[in-house]
Amino acid sequence: MTNKLDDHLNGLVSPDDLSEFKDTIFCDVLGNGWADYFYNDKPVTVYKAPTIIECLKLLASKRVSGIIHAQPVLELYIKNLGLNDKLFVHTTPSERSPVFPLLISKKVKLAKEILTSFDRHFEDDHKLIHLDHPNRLEHN
Q1: What is the pLDDT of residues 16-53, one digit of tens each?
Q2: Of 9, 11, 30, 113, which is most buried, counting CB atoms within 10 Å of its CB?
């Protein structure tokens, strides 16, 4: 996602190749482990905001250059914030993007283990993951 008034960034073809955007600032949400993984080899600076709403407001005011986040989430908040006229959603997904998100409450004791296993499992192109016991993950 970019600001509609930023001609250079509106030429973004793939979120996986940010080489043309070296030294720009992208925004993501604090605690987003996927973003840490995604941006670790990118030539951009990542500003961590408390919420995606904060990122959208920063992008609309041109204080950050882009956001790479789940399209349905962005579209919902853009509509709710009335930012359709300012922001452009690029529809090409990252090759590193999960097909769907897995959300787990912070109160779940094994949340980190489950999410790590889930991410690793799908990186290996597996199709199913079973949680058959609260203390053990089983992979297929």
Answers
A1: 888 888 889 999 999 888 888 888 899 999 999 999 99
A2: 9
pTM listed for this prediction: 0.66
Higher pLDDT, 82 or 139: 82
Residue 57: pLDDT band by 50, 70, 90 thresholds?
very high
Question: DSSP secondary structure string, the chain?
Answer: -EETT-TTGGG---TT--GGGTT-EEEEETT-HHHHHHHTTSSSEEEEESSHHHHHHHHHTTSS-EE---HHHHHHHHHHHT-TTTEE---PPPTT--SS-----TT-TTHHHHHHHHHHHHHTT---EEEEETTEEEE-
Domain with CATH 3.40.190.10 in the chain: 2-88
